[in-house]
Amino acid sequence: MDSSRYFGERMIRNVLPNRLCPGKDVTGIIHRATVARAGHLDDAFKYLDSFVKERA
User: Fold this and answer.
1) Burial class (CB in 10 A: 0-12, 13-18, 19+), 11
2) How far, in Å, CA of 16 to CA of 10, rounded?
3) Which residue in 7, 31, 50, 53 has a CA-CA distance of 20 to 30 Å to 40?
4) DSSP E strands, the chain
């Protein structure tokens, strides 16, 4: 199986169900993958703060 097809199948199986039902991020996958909210880095990505500020 090629990587694009594998990626697509995993996206459909693991990500889309959580995106299509707001508030139903049962696995937490969307929350863990979100880099920023309301213009601020999420806690898991705070280590990028200085990098972002240097380029602003």
Assistant:
1) exposed
2) 9
3) 7
4) 36-37, 40-41
